[in-house]
Write a structure and sequence with these properties.
With 198 residues, the chain is of the alpha+beta class. Helix content is 49%, strand content 20%.
Protein backbone atom coordinates (compact mmCIF):
# COMPACT_ATOMS: atom_id res chain seq x y z
CA UNK A 1 0.00 0.00 0.00
CA UNK A 2 1.25 3.43 -0.88
CA UNK A 3 1.30 6.26 1.73
CA UNK A 4 -0.81 9.33 0.97
CA UNK A 5 0.13 12.80 2.30
CA UNK A 6 -3.09 14.57 3.30
CA UNK A 7 -1.41 17.85 4.24
CA UNK A 8 -2.08 20.85 1.98
CA UNK A 9 0.69 21.96 -0.35
CA UNK A 10 1.80 24.93 1.76
CA UNK A 11 2.25 22.69 4.85
CA UNK A 12 4.30 19.98 3.17
CA UNK A 13 8.00 19.86 3.63
CA UNK A 14 10.11 21.98 1.37
CA UNK A 15 7.38 24.61 0.89
CA UNK A 16 8.31 28.24 1.65
CA UNK A 17 5.54 28.68 4.33
CA UNK A 18 6.72 25.75 6.41
CA UNK A 19 9.89 27.58 7.39
CA UNK A 20 8.19 30.85 8.40
CA UNK A 21 9.00 31.73 12.01
CA UNK A 22 11.53 28.99 12.47
CA UNK A 23 14.38 31.50 12.63
CA UNK A 24 12.65 33.47 15.44
CA UNK A 25 13.87 32.88 18.92
CA UNK A 26 12.25 33.98 22.21
CA UNK A 27 14.28 37.18 22.42
CA UNK A 28 13.17 38.38 18.98
CA UNK A 29 9.53 37.54 19.76
CA UNK A 30 9.73 39.61 22.98
CA UNK A 31 11.31 42.54 21.11
CA UNK A 32 8.66 42.49 18.38
CA UNK A 33 5.85 42.11 20.93
CA UNK A 34 7.25 44.98 23.02
CA UNK A 35 7.55 47.19 19.96
CA UNK A 36 3.98 46.43 18.93
CA UNK A 37 2.76 47.12 22.50
CA UNK A 38 4.62 50.47 22.63
CA UNK A 39 3.24 51.52 19.23
CA UNK A 40 -0.29 50.52 20.33
CA UNK A 41 0.11 52.44 23.61
CA UNK A 42 1.33 55.53 21.75
CA UNK A 43 -1.57 55.27 19.31
CA UNK A 44 -4.12 54.97 22.14
CA UNK A 45 -2.44 57.85 23.97
CA UNK A 46 -2.63 60.08 20.89
CA UNK A 47 -6.28 59.16 20.37
CA UNK A 48 -7.04 59.84 24.06
CA UNK A 49 -5.41 63.30 24.00
CA UNK A 50 -7.10 64.14 20.71
CA UNK A 51 -10.55 63.23 22.08
CA UNK A 52 -9.78 65.07 25.30
CA UNK A 53 -8.91 68.17 23.27
CA UNK A 54 -12.17 67.85 21.26
CA UNK A 55 -14.21 67.50 24.48
CA UNK A 56 -12.42 70.51 25.99
CA UNK A 57 -13.19 72.59 22.89
CA UNK A 58 -16.84 71.55 23.00
CA UNK A 59 -17.06 72.48 26.69
CA UNK A 60 -15.53 75.85 25.92
CA UNK A 61 -18.06 76.42 23.11
CA UNK A 62 -20.90 75.40 25.44
CA UNK A 63 -19.74 77.83 28.14
CA UNK A 64 -19.50 80.63 25.56
CA UNK A 65 -23.00 79.84 24.23
CA UNK A 66 -24.43 79.77 27.76
CA UNK A 67 -22.82 83.13 28.55
CA UNK A 68 -24.32 84.59 25.36
CA UNK A 69 -27.72 83.14 26.26
CA UNK A 70 -27.60 84.74 29.72
CA UNK A 71 -26.64 88.08 28.14
CA UNK A 72 -29.48 87.84 25.60
CA UNK A 73 -31.97 86.93 28.32
CA UNK A 74 -30.85 89.96 30.32
CA UNK A 75 -31.39 92.15 27.24
CA UNK A 76 -34.77 90.58 26.49
CA UNK A 77 -36.11 90.93 30.07
CA UNK A 78 -37.15 94.62 29.76
CA UNK A 79 -38.92 93.82 26.46
CA UNK A 80 -40.74 90.86 28.03
CA UNK A 81 -41.73 93.03 31.01
CA UNK A 82 -43.06 95.70 28.66
CA UNK A 83 -45.02 93.08 26.69
CA UNK A 84 -46.55 91.74 29.92
CA UNK A 85 -47.51 95.26 31.00
CA UNK A 86 -49.06 95.94 27.57
CA UNK A 87 -51.00 92.66 27.72
CA UNK A 88 -52.37 93.63 31.15
CA UNK A 89 -53.38 97.07 29.81
CA UNK A 90 -55.05 95.51 26.78
CA UNK A 91 -56.99 93.11 29.01
CA UNK A 92 -58.16 96.03 31.13
CA UNK A 93 -59.12 98.09 28.06
CA UNK A 94 -61.08 95.16 26.58
CA UNK A 95 -62.94 94.69 29.84
CA UNK A 96 -63.76 98.41 29.96
CA UNK A 97 -64.94 98.58 26.35
CA UNK A 98 -67.00 95.41 26.77
CA UNK A 99 -68.92 96.95 29.69
CA UNK A 100 -69.28 100.54 28.49
CA UNK A 101 -72.65 101.77 27.31
CA UNK A 102 -72.91 102.70 23.65
CA UNK A 103 -75.39 105.55 24.13
CA UNK A 104 -75.50 106.44 20.44
CA UNK A 105 -76.76 102.96 19.45
CA UNK A 106 -78.98 102.56 22.51
CA UNK A 107 -80.79 105.88 22.07
CA UNK A 108 -81.01 105.42 18.28
CA UNK A 109 -82.64 101.99 18.67
CA UNK A 110 -85.03 103.25 21.35
CA UNK A 111 -86.04 106.24 19.24
CA UNK A 112 -86.86 103.97 16.28
CA UNK A 113 -88.63 101.18 18.19
CA UNK A 114 -90.72 102.94 20.84
CA UNK A 115 -94.35 103.43 19.74
CA UNK A 116 -95.80 106.90 19.23
CA UNK A 117 -97.43 108.49 22.23
CA UNK A 118 -94.80 107.09 24.64
CA UNK A 119 -92.55 109.57 26.41
CA UNK A 120 -89.50 108.63 28.44
CA UNK A 121 -88.83 110.68 31.55
CA UNK A 122 -85.81 108.78 32.82
CA UNK A 123 -83.32 106.26 31.40
CA UNK A 124 -80.39 104.75 33.28
CA UNK A 125 -77.86 102.05 32.66
CA UNK A 126 -75.63 100.99 35.56
CA UNK A 127 -72.53 99.36 34.09
CA UNK A 128 -69.89 97.85 36.39
CA UNK A 129 -66.43 99.24 35.60
CA UNK A 130 -63.63 96.85 36.57
CA UNK A 131 -60.76 98.05 38.73
CA UNK A 132 -57.32 98.33 37.04
CA UNK A 133 -56.15 95.09 38.68
CA UNK A 134 -59.21 93.08 37.64
CA UNK A 135 -58.97 90.85 34.59
CA UNK A 136 -62.68 91.12 33.69
CA UNK A 137 -65.91 92.50 35.10
CA UNK A 138 -67.59 90.51 37.84
CA UNK A 139 -70.50 89.44 35.60
CA UNK A 140 -69.93 89.98 31.87
CA UNK A 141 -72.82 91.83 30.24
CA UNK A 142 -74.98 91.87 33.41
CA UNK A 143 -75.88 95.56 33.77
CA UNK A 144 -79.08 97.20 34.94
CA UNK A 145 -81.21 99.03 32.40
CA UNK A 146 -84.18 101.02 33.68
CA UNK A 147 -86.59 103.31 31.85
CA UNK A 148 -89.40 105.39 33.28
CA UNK A 149 -91.99 107.05 31.08
CA UNK A 150 -95.58 108.03 30.49
CA UNK A 151 -98.23 107.05 27.97
CA UNK A 152 -102.00 107.07 27.66
CA UNK A 153 -103.03 103.47 28.57
CA UNK A 154 -101.78 100.18 29.95
CA UNK A 155 -102.09 98.72 26.44
CA UNK A 156 -99.45 101.18 25.30
CA UNK A 157 -97.19 99.97 28.15
CA UNK A 158 -97.63 96.39 26.89
CA UNK A 159 -96.66 97.59 23.41
CA UNK A 160 -93.53 99.19 24.88
CA UNK A 161 -92.62 95.82 26.45
CA UNK A 162 -93.09 94.09 23.09
CA UNK A 163 -90.92 96.65 21.30
CA UNK A 164 -88.16 96.40 23.92
CA UNK A 165 -88.15 92.61 23.56
CA UNK A 166 -87.12 93.06 19.90
CA UNK A 167 -83.92 94.89 20.82
CA UNK A 168 -80.99 92.43 20.68
CA UNK A 169 -79.03 94.18 23.44
CA UNK A 170 -81.78 93.83 26.08
CA UNK A 171 -82.84 90.71 27.93
CA UNK A 172 -84.88 89.81 31.04
CA UNK A 173 -87.34 92.65 30.40
CA UNK A 174 -89.65 93.11 33.41
CA UNK A 175 -92.45 95.60 34.07
CA UNK A 176 -91.62 96.98 37.52
CA UNK A 177 -94.59 99.29 37.92
CA UNK A 178 -97.46 100.79 35.95
CA UNK A 179 -100.07 103.17 37.36
CA UNK A 180 -102.90 105.19 35.78
CA UNK A 181 -103.72 108.59 37.22
CA UNK A 182 -105.58 111.50 35.63
CA UNK A 183 -105.57 109.81 32.21
CA UNK A 184 -101.80 109.27 32.19
CA UNK A 185 -100.10 105.95 32.74
CA UNK A 186 -96.69 106.11 34.39
CA UNK A 187 -94.53 103.01 34.02
CA UNK A 188 -91.10 101.71 35.01
CA UNK A 189 -89.44 98.88 33.09
CA UNK A 190 -86.23 97.08 34.08
CA UNK A 191 -84.01 94.89 31.91
CA UNK A 192 -80.52 93.52 31.54
CA UNK A 193 -78.31 95.50 29.18
CA UNK A 194 -76.00 93.20 27.19
CA UNK A 195 -74.32 95.81 25.00
CA UNK A 196 -75.82 98.09 22.38
CA UNK A 197 -75.10 97.11 18.82
CA UNK A 198 -74.20 93.48 19.68
Amino acid sequence: MQAVNLLPDYARGGHKWTSVGSELNARKIIQIGGTVAIVAALLFGLLYFRERSVVSDKKSELNTAQARLVAQQARAKPIQDAQSANAARMTFMRSVTSTRVDWYSALGDLGRDLPTGVYLTNLSVASPVPSPGAAAPAVSGATNFTITGTTSTHDRVALVLDRLAVLPWLSNIVLQSSSLAAGTTTFTIGATYTGAGT
